[in-house]
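Predict structure. Chain length: 200.
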Amino acid sequence: MAVDALTRRKVAFAAVGGFASLATTTTTAQQKEPSRPLPLAVTGYGARHRETVDRLLQTLGPKVALDSEKGLHLVIRLLVDSGLLTQSEAALLDKIVDAIFSSKSVSAMRDAVVAVKNELVRAASDLAKAITSIVEDSIEFAAKKLSDKDFLKVVAIVSADLGGALSGAFALAGGGIPLAVIGGLVGAVSGSALTASKTL
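Prediction complete.
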């Protein structure tokens, strides 16, 4: 899917746009429990947001959208390079990307993702499992709103959720897997809300 530079930047910003809400939530928790420091100085979140978007765009290269098949595979590689995913976990997440774009129906996509989830249960980090859980729930959400005749819209929503989860996890890569899981959730919510509001 070819997109212009402005659209690509908007997509990347949307995917990590929940970063600020995470900082706000963490700050609120910190006020209640002063013993929990923020993972970054408050003034560092803007810079981290910019660095994340720049790195994502650099990884994607020209004319590759974050939520495209190629874009998702590239960001999975980025998480491997960042130490958040193992090669075996990445291979299983690659299967999910393939399923999203090659399935011909919601049920076929669901079955493929469940099969990967069952493989991840045996040996995988919380991040890989969390990302798979987000995709599985995204399929269920889209299935309730759309039918197989609108299957391309289902693909758009699920791929946006996965792109948001992957990029959100990368945004908090410095905090290790626990914070990357939170970043994945925040990013997926942002990506889902943006795409669903335009699609449904």
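Summary: Residues 120 and 129 are 7 Å apart (CA to CA).
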